[in-house]
Amino acid sequence: MRLEGKVALITGGARGIGAASAERYIEEGAKVVIADRRADEAEALAVQLNQQQANSALAIELDVSDEAAWTDAVKRTINTFGKLNILVNNAGIILISWAPFWASKQ
User: Fold this and answer.
1) Which structural domain, as residue segments, surrounds residue 100?
2) For the whole model, what pTM was predicted?
3) Residue 32 near residue 5, CB atoms below 8 Å
């Protein structure tokens, strides 16, 4: 367990790469904070992870563009787990244009 005693806050943690990261961090002994705009999905994942490893996950609603929300997220993390060691800055949106690259240059 390489991350025993560590606490990680994972943005965009409710699904996809963020959720997979949360699962892996817990497997390695860390506590995780699943921070996501989708509070219901973050909470569902935290419940699932806490069933596998008691008191290992906390869900926090977080819009990464909101400075006050960051302050609250860090405070809640420290109040719950006593510290914060790792930030996985995974939140983001991918916008895909299906038009070929050369079509946009005409």
Assistant:
1) 7-105
2) 0.86
3) no
